[in-house]
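Hi team,

As requested, here is the filled-out complex form for the magnesium ion run. I kept the field names the same as last time so the parser does not choke. Let me know if anything looks off before we queue the next batch.

— J.
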Amino acid sequence: MKNKVAEDTYLVGIGVSPGIGIGEVSLVDQRPLVDQSLIDIGEIEGELLRFQQALDLAKRQLQKIKQTVSDQPHLREHLYILDTHLLILDDEMLVSGTEKGILERINAEGALTQVLEQLRALFDNIDDEYLRERRSDVDAVGERLLRILTGVGERTIGNIGRKSLVVAHELSPAETMQMDRSKVLGFITDKGGRTSHTAILARSLNIPAVVGMETITSMVFDRVPVVIDGTTGVVILNPSAKTFKEYLERKQSYEFLERDLENYRNLPPVTTDQVRVSLRGNLEIASDVEQVKKHAAEGIGLYRTEFLYLGRSEPPDEELQYQSYCEIVQQVDGKPVTIRTLDIGGDKFGPELNLADEANPAMGLRAIRFSLQEDRLFRTQLRAILRASTCGKVQIMFPMISGVAEIKACKRILSEIKGELDREGIAYDHDIAIGIMIETPAAVMIAPLLAQEVDFFSIGTNDLIQYFLAVDRGNEHVAYLYEPLHPAILRALKATCDAANNAGINVCMCGEMAGEPLYTQVLVGLGLNALSMNPACVPRVKRVLRQISKRDGELLVDKVLKLSTSKEVSIVIEQEMRNRLPDIFAQTLI
Ligand code: PEP
Ligand code: MG
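And here is what came back:
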């Protein structure tokens, strides 16, 4: 029986939406218990009908939520999530698979549970974190159907009654959207990662959230006092008076800094010694453009086009791609949009592209290797990108380049397509900039050679760290070795920036490292001209950028390059930033 939580029970999850939440728990979890049983042949028809009715009711529920949500401007941009759920309700595998189970004499909820497990297994095999997280959409739809079938009823957190911190196993986007924001002081969930919908929504609603706690729902009960720090992922149950006071102070100072961020919105991203560093947004789905505009990012430094290919039985055709790209480009007021060609391969994708099974997919036929092999697919995408270059300012970027021959091959194909468009009288930007992701050790080692071939580099630190340190970026067992400040990574960044600057081409960073304000001074000192990040990170990075100088950044780089472990590097950087900007960094570092 859970009736007591020890004072100051200190837990750590994944902080996905910054801010401090202090209050009491509202436990909203009540998952349906599924009873799998065999039915008689005579019951089959009734079960099929019951399943069909559940599908219909689920659709009506979602339509109703859509209607409510569309009246709320701050949530309108997330309506696509509900559309995704409606699409899942029509999914062939979900519907026919369950019906097949029922025909094999399993009751409706049992048959559905089996299909959901199969779908989950498919998602679990996906390497890419963002795509893998989309499994949560299937889970949310599955839970909605199971609630109907088992009679548990629709779960809603719209009426939690009092101001509290919502604790749940997982929150579906529909539930998150229905809630009364004025009552929610924060979210804590067992499941989820940085790119789960709860995380994305919490960020855009500006509510602190910690996810991936694994067992929080079994540790707390209603009204347990709790504090959370959505930046560090710290959750403290039953805080002592001392902890409570400390977090109250942190909350006040965090909120003061947040209000202060607004003041930076319209200020240029320049250092105190007048060096301009462009701060751009990373984009996965078209509706994220709203975030790019909201946070005043200077265009899009990385558009991950693979999300356009997701969930279709056929790859998107040229027209559809052109329309999507153009729509995005037109929305950013003439600022550059860097469209990255398909970065997919191995098990980084579902069944749509018929990819072969590979023993070592991260090093297999992915990204540019896949595009160069799938000539038709590649040419279609390049045609669409070139055509979209008349809609605003577009740059093309190729992922995972590991040799000069690859970029030469890309350029040859691109020039053939330009010739084709010329012959057909179709307009495009003849001076379109071409760039490559620097994310393999090979690319770093030959950066001076690659710099002769392209207009810009963009450093993909997510993969660069994985390949340089031989640490699978998605494997929690080796996560402790995944160190952005490893001396090898700092040297790799330095070599890349030097090669770009010597050749007079731009060098951007678009991996997660770019959005961490703690690293901003080092990155500027390394000579990066642009940083592209989750748009919500732009204001914080800009605030730091405007208070540091490139010269001090260079001195800091010289200092950390002499150190031999990432621990030493991180201590020096934290100290430097804390001394330089105590109001910002004293609070966030542990
Ligand atoms: C990277 O590898 O850092 C990157 C930005 O690309 P992705 O995360 O899409 O692989
Ligand atoms: Mg990458």
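Two things worth flagging: The longest strand covers residues 20-27. Residues 44-70 form the longest helix (27 residues).

Thanks,
J.
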